[in-house]
Amino acid sequence: MTRIATLSETRSNCHDCRLRSLCLPDNLSKEDIGELDSIVQRRKPVARGAYLFQAGQRFNSIFAVRTGSVKASTLLANGDEHISGFHLPGDVIGLDAIVSRDHPSTAIALESTSVCEIPYAELESLGDRLPTLQHQLVRIMSRELLAEQSTGHLLTRRAAEQRLAVVLLKFSERFANRGLSALRFRLPMSRLDLGNYLGLVPETMSRTFRRLEEQGLLSIAGKEIEIVDVCAIKALAYGNNEGDLAAKA
């Protein structure tokens, strides 16, 4: 039976973690995983609304999400919050601080969240001895950059329905990569946060969800989403038969 995406299960060491194919242990030998595991610090769960780190804070570690979810945000010049992304289990956070050595963004737990803290100085030292680990870190950074560029391109100058369709398909793909359902999943963030990320005001977000449900593309129960017509959602998001779907709105 297909599991609904809840993202609450993982193990307490790198070798047994079901998320290791998404994280630093991927492609490492058993011995190398043991060395990586020796520098990983596993924190107690972080409460909803708590900070993993804040913008301007000195960079010391990167973090791998084990359970829960995290949003990344920055403050705009006018003091408004801008949400730049959402992180799920298996994601590595804090990579954008490696160059400046100060965190450019703030990471906030969206729910009770467990992370693995990896001191960067120790990771660098270990990477000097384990080229495969160094290569895996570069792959993760490249993957994050590509995902950010791809999503940003798809969201540029698009109608509200198209933006929402794009981000739901992106979440669908991410849940599937974690062995969970690609069609039924729970969005961890509030509609307000999702609207902030998409550049849509709350009223538009509510109206957009409702219209997609009325068109038979989605089934919605609170934060739980079911993609009912995946072909239509893809057409709306990526442009095939876009005119026909827009007409239905």
TrEMBL record:
UniProt keyword annotations, A-Z: DNA-binding, Transcription, Transcription regulation
Domain Cyclic nucleotide-binding: 24-107
Residue spans crossing the bilayer: none
InterPro entries assigned to the protein according to its UniProt record, in alphabetical order: cNMP-bd_dom, cNMP-bd_dom_sf, Env_Response_Regulators, HTH_CRP, RmlC-like_jellyroll, WH-like_DNA-bd_sf, WH_DNA-bd_sf
Domain of life assignment: Bacteria
Record keyword Disulfide bond present: no
HTH crp-type domain mapped to chain residues: 158-231
Name recorded for this polypeptide: Fumarate/nitrate reduction transcriptional regulator Fnr
